[in-house]
Amino acid sequence: MLTEFLQREQAAIVDTWVDLIISGYPAQSSHFLKEESDRFRNPVGFTIGSEANKLFAALVDNNDESRLRASIDSIIKIRTVQDFTAAQAVHFIFLLKDALRKTLSEKGKEEVPIDELLAFESRVDRLALLAFDSYMHCRDRINEIRIQEMKRKSRFLLKRLHIQEESIWQEG
Amino acid sequence: MAEKILPPEELGRVDYSPPKKSWMDPKVEFRKGTFNYGAVPSSTSYLDLPFSRKWQPTDDDWQLPDNWKEIILNGLKDRLKKYRSLKVFMDICVRCGACADKCHFYIGSGDPKNMPVLRAELLRSVYRNDFTTAGKLLGKLAGGRKLTKEIIKEWFYYFYQCTECRRCSVFCPYGIDTAEITMMGRELLNLLGLDIDWITTPAANCFRTGNHLGIQPHGFKDSVEFAVDDLEEITGIRVEAPINKKGAEVLFIVPSADYFGDPHYFGFLGYLALLHEIGLDYTFSTFASEGGNFGLFHSAEMMKRLNAKMYMEAKRLGVKWILGGECGHMWRVIHQYMDTVNGPADFLEVPVSPITGTRFEHAASTKMIHIAEFTADLIKHGKLNLDKSRNDQWRVTFHDSCNPARAMGLLEEPRFILNSVCNHFYEMPENTIREQTFCCGSGAGLGTDENFEMRMRGGLPRANAVKYVQEQHDVNMLCCICAIDKATLPPLMDYWVPGIQVGALHELVGNALVMKGEKERVTDMRSNPLPGKEVTVDA
Questions:
Q1: Over B142-164, what HEC string results?
Q2: What is the pTM of this model?
Q3: Of the CATH numbers 3.40.50, 1.25.40, 1.10.1060, 3.40.30, which one belongs to the domain with range B23-195?
Q4: Where along chain A do its domains lie?
Q5: Nearest beta carbon to residue A156 from set B115, B265, B453
Q6: What are the CA-CA distances from residue B295 to residues B205, B300, B302, B315, B445 (Å)?
Q7: N or C, where is chain A less crowded by C-beta within 10 Å?
Q8: For residue B429, what is the nearest residue in chain A, using CA coordinates?
Q9: Which band of pLDDT confidence, cut at 50, 70 and 90, is reported for residue A65?
Q10: What is the C-alpha to C-alpha distance for residues B88 and B192, in angstroms, rounded to an integer?
Q11: Which residues in B lie closer than 8 A to residue A153 (C-beta atoms)?
């Protein structure tokens, strides 16, 4: 059964997945991102590691989207402002397939029915769509916050000119 | 010709193999959201800066003067001669890597050239190539790089990805101040007219009107009067806020954002309330109407030009000493450079609090103290009547602003004040505060909206620690004592940790301060209802 395999090999699969994600960063930084375990000294590596674990567990349990969304958002929020294109920012989801296939080929090729594997990979695809939504949400937030920042700069100036419409300041 | 369409799984693929190019390859890409615009000619020419022209980092041709190489190498030569520290910093780094993972931009981006050691190496490699025997003989083998136009672009990209916060310097066993290397890099770039607008235009404004925003004396007066009105509405007390008053005991200089910015302004109301309550004989100046000094981010010369006004005004008005508001880099200028740049200010007196009698010996030469020191001293001597419960709407954490923390060691005073004015104060994890504090990611002239994504990267470590105290203690206010922080932390929080407000230390002081003869307070400095007074305000 695939589920048993996934539960048994969770550590190996997630570890490979995280390795693949981190190797998308410059080579001189991958050691730091992977090995520094202090969450405050290495928020990027820590977030990728811990959220990848949560995502994987939620996928195996076939949890609903709400449980996946928080973890997706945490990682995407970071990748949105890093040096990635949109495709690169969400691509890490597909790397889970690579990690799974690699672990399967090493440790459990025979015991997994193909239909279960395809079903699991479809869940991974759905996760990628969620990641794209999350990416777009982050881009929107950036634009909204930039607008808010400009408004904040002129707030007291307008107040002094007696232009203080409530509607100017409300957030959507 | 149409591009080749990759199969779906190849589309977003990142190349996992280590890059083929070495760090010596200077090529950089100016992506929208990750760099600052070039300075407008009206500002560069106002300041008589060389090679004033219209240009942008995204231009292929930066219109460098023909003798650009000679200008840079001579500029470096001059600075190596003038600053012994620069020569030492160029020579003594052993590349131990202690600083490598301490930079907030590196932590947030993973870009190796944001490691302080490698950022310094961008300049050091040119130094090696042209100023050391090994480099002259062996070139690349000795870690030298020949100066090229690509290197100039690379310098611009990375020296404007350093906020001069000096966190890396805390960890350097040799005491190399990487911020000063960035400063030198920027000075050299400026020799070619490669100034950025967010530094140059505020500096030009400050040179013209005395503050970064370009507010003229009548505008300054209006702003202060407006604040006096607002404070009266909140407290029922009409305070005096003297301007250009000759013979006052103290000149009070605040960053201009304090009387114009949100949320700075609420702290400004707090200052006015406090200084009225203790009856300090002080004055503002319409010409020294800026505590900040964007010249620091440009060049030593510009810093000197802007800093001079403070002391000229102190002299003109005949005050005894200077009190400074909640500002960050102002204190690096005052504490570490002023004395040899413009000072010593020997026509002033060593600051003595007329209320407590405390003599601020550490300011014996600069004659200028930070308001956090002044207020902490007042509280310590029991001179203020404080009602902590008037800040019960806030669960506060404190962000040590880089310069007050690392440049002047102002660590205990703000915490002492916070513990005296509010009931709920929670520290962020210890490796993210005090000397090890993480920068807001937007200091040193980088706080522009065009640079927004880079700021979010650089601010991630700070935001990450705030998120932790939000989760652990339900914190809802990030308090700080720096004007740049107050301008740039709100968007940082909005992106990474929604639900956190940013506030000034003296906003909380103003809330808690029970003033003689005040009316029943129903709102805080933000004109929001105080806890338990919501109905009164609505009615």
A1: HCCCCCCHHHHHHHHHHHCCCCC
A2: 0.94
A3: 1.10.1060
A4: 2-141
A5: B265
A6: 11, 7, 4, 22, 10
A7: C
A8: A40
A9: confident
A10: 25
A11: 261-262, 487
> What distance in Å separates residue A122's CA from the closest CA in chain B?
14
A30 min Cα distance to partner chain B (Å): 8
Q: Is B350 left (phi over 0), alpha (psi -120 to 50) or beta?
A: beta
Give the 3-state secondary structure of residue B249.
coil
Best to test chain A binding among B16, B102, B226, B467 (most A CBs inside 10 Å): B16
Q: Which positions ≥6 away from B498 have C-beta within 8 Å?
A: none
Cα Rg for chain A, rounded, in angstroms?
Answer: 20
Residues in chain A within 8 Å Cβ distance of B33: 81, 142
For B308, the token pair is 């001079």
The DSSP-derived string for chain A is -HHHHHHHTHHHHHHHHHHHHHTTS-HHHHHHHHH---TTT-HHHHHHHHHHHHHHHHHHTT--HHHHHHHHHHHHHHHHTSS--HHHHHHTTTHHHHHHHHHHHHHTTTTS-HHHHHHHHHHHHHHHHHHHHHHHHHHHHHHHHHHHHHHHHHHHHHHHTT---HHHH---
Shortest CA gap A134–chain B (Å): 13
Whether residue A172 is predicted with pLDDT greater than 50 in this model: the reply is: no
pLDDT of the residue at A67: 81
The DSSP element (H or E) to which B43 belongs, if any, is: helix B41-46
pLDDT of residue B175: 94
Q: With cut-offs at 50, 70 and 90, classify the pLDDT of residue B382.
A: very high
Tokens linked to B27: 């090529």
Closest CB to B494: pick one of A24, A43, A145.
A145
Predicted local distance difference test score (pLDDT) of residue A110: 67
Separation of CA B206 from chain center? 16
Window A:98-137, CB contacts with B under 8 Å? none
Dihedral, B491, B497, B499, B503 alpha carbons, nearest 10: -60
pLDDT tens figures, B422-479? 999 999 999 999 999 999 999 999 999 999 999 999 999 999 999 999 999 999 999 9
Whether the pLDDT of residue A167 is over 80: the answer is: no
For chains A and B, CB pairs below 8 A equal: 121
CA dist., res. A111 & res. A119, Å (int):
16
Q: How many residues are present in chain B?
A: 539
Is the Cβ of A160 closer than 8 Å to some Cβ of chain B? yes
Nearest to B449 among A77, A94, A150 (CB): A150
Q: What is the mean pLDDT of residues A24-46?
A: 93
pLDDT at B386 over 80: yes
Give yes or no for A172 touching B (CB within 8 A): no
Distance in angstroms (rounded) separating the CA atoms of residues B147 and B113: 17
State the smallest CA–CA distance between residue A32 and chain B in angstroms. Answer: 8
AA letter at B312: M
Interacting residues of A61 by C-beta distance below 8 A, sequence separation 6+:
none
Which one, of B306, B326, B297, lies nearest residue B446 by Cα?
Answer: B297
Residue of chain B with shortest Cα separation from A73: B496
What CA–CA distance (Å, rounded) separates B119 from B26? 11
Nearest by CB to residue A81, choosing from B106, B223, B457, is B457
CA gap B180, B184 in Å, rounded: 6
Region B11-21 average pLDDT: 55
Residues B460, A78: C-beta atoms closer than 8 Å? yes
Collect all residues of chain B within an 8 Å Cβ-Cβ radius of residue A142: 33, 452-453, 456, 495
* DSSP-derived secondary structure letter, B221: H
Instruction: Break chain B into its structural domains and give their ranges.
Output: 23-195, 202-533
